[in-house]
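Researcher: Last one for today. Full complex below.
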Amino acid sequence: MSILPIQQLKGFYVLPITLPSPTSITSSKKHSNKELQVIHYMFVKKHATKNEQESHSRSLFLVNVPVDANFNNIKKLFSQFSTGAIIESFKFNPYYDYNKLVNYNDEIDFTALSNPEFKPEPQQQQPQQGKKGKSQNQNQQQNRSHCPVGCAIVTFLDKQACNFALSNVKKLISSNSLKKNIPSWTTATEDSNVSGLKKYTASRKLDPKQLSLQVAQAMQEFTEREHRAA
Amino acid sequence: QPSFIKRQKKSQLSAQDVQIARETAELFKSNIFKLEIDELIKELKLKESHCKLIENSLHRLHDIIQQIPKSKEFALFEAEALFSNSKNKVVIPFPDPKPTSFKSKLQYDIPEFVSLVGSFGLKTAIQQPKGMSVDMALTMPKSLFQPKDYLNYRAIYKRAFYIAYLADQLIQLSKKNHLPIKVSYDYLNGDRLCPTILIESVSPEHPHKDDLIFEKTKMSIRLIVGFEIGLFESKKLLPDRNCIRVQTKNDSDPLPPTPLYNASLLSSTAYKYYLENLVTARKSAEAFRDAAMLGKLWLKQKGFSSHFNEGGFGHFEFATLMAALLEGGGENGNKILLHGFSSYQLFKGTIKYLATQDLCNDGYLSFSFSLDKFAAYKKNGFKVPTIFDKYTKINILWKMSASSYELLKKYAVETLCLLNDVVQDRFKPIFIQKSDDNLLKYDSLVQIPLKSIDEEGFGALEKISFLSFENFICSKIYRILSKALDERATQIHISISKKDRPWSINKRKPSSSDSHDALINIGLFLDSSRCEKKVTKGPLHSEKEAGEKFASFWGTKAQLRKYKDGNIQYSCLWQSISTESTVITIIKYILTLHLHKDISEKLIINSNKFIKLLPQPVISSKDSTQPIILPFHFQDLKNSYNELCKTLYDLNLPLVIKSIFPTSPALRNTSLLLPVPFSSSSEEFFNESIMQFETSAKWPDELIALEQTKTAFLLKIDQLLNKETAYKCFLQNDELTIPYNDKIVVLKVLTPEGYGFSFRILTERDEVLYLRAIENATDKQKKTVTDVYLRFNQKYMGSTKHHRAVATLVNHYPFYSPVVRLFKRWLDSQLLLCHFPDELVELIALKVFVDPAPFSAPSSVASGFLRLLHFLSTWNWKEEPLILDLAKEFDDDSDKGNYIDKISDRLTVQSYQVMYNNFNKLRQEDPSAIRIQYFVASKEDPSGKLWTSHRISLPIASRLTALSKAAISLLLKHQQHNGVISNKVLKLIFTPALKDYDFVVRLNVPTDFSIASGILPDNKFKNLVQTSSEFSEDVTTTADPTQRYFEELVSRYNNVMVLSTNKFIGLSDTGKVNVITGLFNPSVVNVGVG
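Model: Here's the assembly. Have a good evening.
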């Protein structure tokens, strides 16, 4: 597969990355590894908002992020060509809407809409969930409104780190040896530890104990809010 | 006193009001109808230029005929020699039996009259795609005949010579007279005794400037040769007389009557007579002409014509009946139609007469157009359809059989119903939609190759009374089957598939190879509530004579059985075969017994093949077969469900469960797969219900918290059931159903019988809170929040209403369940089912049952499925809403009185208008149907978009139309070819066209999902299949992973592509493969990313 010759597109830098081939295909001997290299293109730009100008920003705006992107594998990706630029946070808004109803440009919170008096304080928007793994998920949901669908915002520790990372992206894609040095993507495995068939045949039963705890906590929070409102 | 009067007055007034309101509706409708009719009549009229051209040609033809000189007299052998020596090699079209010796002389003389007859002569001809023929009648001079010539084919032989001579001369003279034509023989309406000359225009190689060519008019001219009226003593030719004398074994036996021969002969004397009288009728009633055209079109769309094989009731019969009804027709000779009637009224009156008067058994219509004009309905029919002309002694319906009459009457009844419908405009199904296709119009079609029946039993006597073997065999089969099927079939229509074609003038009759592949069509209209009965009951044991008759008719099948009521009755017991309907079993048996011993292998039956496509369930024990309608699986499921509900109601909970509403297809008999115990891998395994508690003020006043509270209740039920009962349950998240509400939890219950149920809670607060959310939403959010509310409405409220409505109708239409199941299978095989909610599929399938016009409600799997495909292929959903009347009572008895009218839940004009206006509004907002394609409304959902506003998209809706078009045309094409729909063709129809998609992902799963879903694989035997009798440890892990993968892909990519998959992996060939296909949304792809 040839690499897209375009380096820049509407102000975005075109960053190729290689996706790992599914194990079932690589194991078959018919194909050599090279042929199966899947190249995915991300589009990178300095992040800017109304309040924060581009020159002051310490974030990069990514478009066309792989579906399983998370803090860990985005960190691994940047470490391949831009060692030292420390990533502080990662916000990602994946598509997820079976009924084609979700409007990604607008956050809808039924708690607030169905009873405006209970409009929660920003930090209490979602009831706390017992599990560690889900707090990240919660984070993502909170940040949806700032990040268009399918896009991500990578925030670095400081402005220098951000600039450093972006200049490394530019350097990488203009280099002659890009073909050999395409950064590779690591599939997210930390969270779900399963992929493929295992993922889709995993149990869907809820643990009644945890569910009770979660419901109890939610009810308690609701009562508190009710009191506050009254 | 005064108050009493006043009250009475008031009540009278209101009754009058109702009457006026009804009449207004009727009038309004007939006004719209009138406009539509006017428009139609304009369309139907022949082109002016074509008429001119054909008239010129007729004049020239007339001149040519006048030029033909009188011939000398010939003996039979001289006549034959004359033609064999001439260069045109014309052969005399003698009917069977061909004369060997003939004493009279044969001669040609200038015709007494030449006159235009038929619809062209009456000026009621209509445009027909295949063209038409203009009939011209030549009357042979009286001098050529002797009084006794009506006997033994004599007149007919003389006419045959006359025709041959005429044809020979025409060929010679037409060239000289610049009328280039092709001449062939053709029977008049399939009457073997009455050959005619068919004249078609041809373009010569070197045209002359004077040549008259009328090829482009698509019209041909038919020369009919007739006799003078009153030539024979008509009394001698009454239907009960014998006019063909044949030798019989026993000379003392009276010869059978020859009604067909007599009528054919008499009809030949009356072409001119009837034309003149019809013209008089046309002149006397202004709208007669238009009404006759409407009648002709109506008959044509139903497949009727004057032809023997097409029912024997066509334009002529319709017009004559109408003319007679203008003179009378009532039991006292009172007039049925008035001269001042509009075309709509004339047409409707005639249809009503056909629908309500029995002209076959109960009575007949007697009329006369001559001096003492009259028409009256007379009691005591002749057991043959009869409209008798007292003057000419012709039974106008002589070409009709009892079977075709029954069919005509049925159509008239149905059409009358449509004409009486004040709610919807029924113009289209009456006049525009064609419904004469054998595959679609019958519930079941059985065909027998004509050649497979030998002419045994067709002796000399049968020959003279039936004239042709075809007539004989059709009548015989009709007699056998109407006795055998009795009340199982409402109508049996028997016809011959081929229509004779014109044949060369070099042959005496059409070559028999033409009829070589002819089929006998046995079209059955079944009574859906009786046709699948397993027992045919006969007379009581005590009725000896009747019993013997029964036994001799049914042969070894007849047996004595004792019933619960103590009666001992002659009966036949029919084994239930899950892939064959009982009616077919009976037909096979009885035709083998009475027609031919090897007949059952030669029958062509397509309907069974459709039944075989229904997924067969894996059955562990019990019966090894199940009936086509109402298999016990649904009942078993319902029993288990009712038990569970009882347990739930009895649970000790903080709030009492008030109601549980089922919403699952399997609980209303419409699931694609039959519910089989422990088949937890099936997509339809868990049957959903909505649970409601008693009213309480304690529900939180906030949506998400409310959802959490519901979860608390479900947790409690889960705990109680697991602890105290034999039920196993667990809870599961439902993130997909309602967007932005990811806190929904459902309770899943596994019963000891092996079924799965799923419960979600609805409270009285939910709707209020969703509506409040819409109120509080910002302008930008409003649309999304409203859509979310609709989604909630669908899942929690619409689904229960829908379930209730369908569950009632399922019992009323026994074949609805298998038809909708087969339809779902077809949709799934075409990767469409994943786009349609079950509810929508079921509503669309209901269309052919509750609103079947131009057909009747289907009573077989095949007819239901095919008519459904036919409907989908013609449904222009951009411009036509689908408005269904899901009423629970069905009698179309209009004389019920006001009380019943008031409580009837049938669709009213008002509610119909409301729905229609909703549709118009929708299309104003969305004229090209980009947002919402299908509008499907009923009293349960007047908005029409409850089930159609999500997931379906324009390409999917268009694809369904295109696929149904392709499927139905393929089926019709193959059926028309030689009757057989091969398994290969059917398989093709159930195979998706994967090439049409931008990409296809093929998925293989390691386990076989067919048996695990309760499906018996095609290639396996029931006794070799291992079925499970317990649940696996965690049933959520045994579900089809391809569905979950598909869900994820849809969730991520449905904004850039349309994804499709098979919902039922267990139905794939091996039970292990599935595909996911994608179509990119072109607008997104072109814009690019970013």
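Chain B has 33 helices and 27 strands. The first strand of chain B starts at residue 113 and ends at 117.
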